[in-house]
Design brief:
Aminopeptidase; twelve-stranded mixed sheet; 2 domains; 11 helices
Length: 312
């Protein structure tokens, strides 16, 4: 692990840190390294491996957006650069095949656009999308990109006296996230959220904003970050008493705070659900593709072609 941690400190991001395995996902989260012929660690990634009913499933870890693949490519010209990346990705394919899993469905980070080694090995490559804001823009430029309903919601919430605070009491975050997922009838692993908030998040790598209406917290937005990028990980609101602009006000302040920290990118963390996509899109970010790699053993893949046709 010291070699892995040294690599992460120099090249990795928040989702590469060992705290996810130590405190959240345990033995289901596995770290892998790829080495050059000279024995130098040149790439790292992780996989969430789950065994159910005698079958093995490989997927993205819950609340982590992708495999965390990081490649330290030192090639000096474009041809060698592309070839080196191709060799690393081919090694990833080989490892996935060695796992002999029943189903593989994992995402590559947006920085990895070469999916040919997976395609050549009969994996199905599916484009997905997230939204990102370039935080080098001025605050005024960011706001000009918002849809009119977002700007109006911010103005109305401010005019109506909705309070907004940097929230360090993450029990407030957890409470409102649980309410939101319960209302949507989603399967929320409450224990995982709590472990992220209590054991991964700290004042150096995360922040949250809470909106207050009529004396009580009604909306929250929680973000986690590394040295360059900020990720909106989850949020929540109390639909029984919230002001319509409270959630927008939280996310708006997250953007501004990330910018104030000197971060370069704000990532809204996925947007494949139509209702979520339209909400994120209203903040005027850039659409950024990333790729999901999928493969299943027969007869699993035949079944998945019916129940998960968009992936298989």
């Amino acid at each position: 692990m010291p070699l892995y941690e040294e690599f992460v400190a120099e090249h990795g991001g928040i989702f590469n840190t060992a705290s996810w395995k130590e405190h959240v996902h345990g033995d289901r989260l596995h770290y892998f390294g790829i080495f050059t012929d000279r024995g130098d660690l040149c790439a790292i990634f992780h996989l969430y491996i789950q065994n159910r009913y005698g079958f093995t499933f490989v997927r993205n870890p819950p609340f982590m957006p992708h495999t965390g693949l990081v490649i330290n490519n030192r090639a000096q010209n474009e041809a060698n650069y592309l070839s080196f990346n191709k060799e690393v990705l081919t090694a990833v394919v080989s490892l996935l095949n060695e796992l002999s899993s029943s189903v593989v469905s994992v995402s590559l980070p947006p920085s990895v656009i070469d999916t040919q080694p997976f395609y050549w090995d009969k994996y199905k490559v599916i484009p997905n999308y997230t939204y990102q804001h370039d935080l080098s823009e001025t605050e005024a430029d960011l706001e000009r990109q918002f849809a009119s309903n977002v700007r109006n919601s911010i103005k109305k919430a401010t005019k109506d006296g909705v309070g907004i605070e940097l929230c360090r009491d993450y029990t407030v975050v957890h409470q409102l996230v649980k309410i939101t997922f319960s209302r949507r009838e989603k399967d929320l692993n409450s224990g995982t959220v709590e472990e992220i908030l209590q054991k991964v998040a700290d004042s150096e790598n995360s922040f949250a904003f809470a909106a207050y209406w009529e004396g009580k917290p009604v909306a929250v937005a929680f973000c986690i970050h590394d040295k360059t990028a900020c990720y909106y990980l989850f949020g929540g609101y109390d639909h029984t008493s919230t002001h319509r602009g409270a959630g927008v006000l939280c996310l708006y302040n997250c953007l501004l705070h990330a910018k104030s920290l000197g971060l370069q990118v704000f990532d809204f963390e996925g947007s494949m659900m139509p209702e979520v996509e339209s909400y994120f899109r209203s903040f005027g970010p850039q659409m950024v593709p990333y790729y999901t790699i999928n493969k299943g053993r027969l007869p699993f893949e035949l079944v998945l072609k019916f129940v998960k046709r968009e992936r298989f």
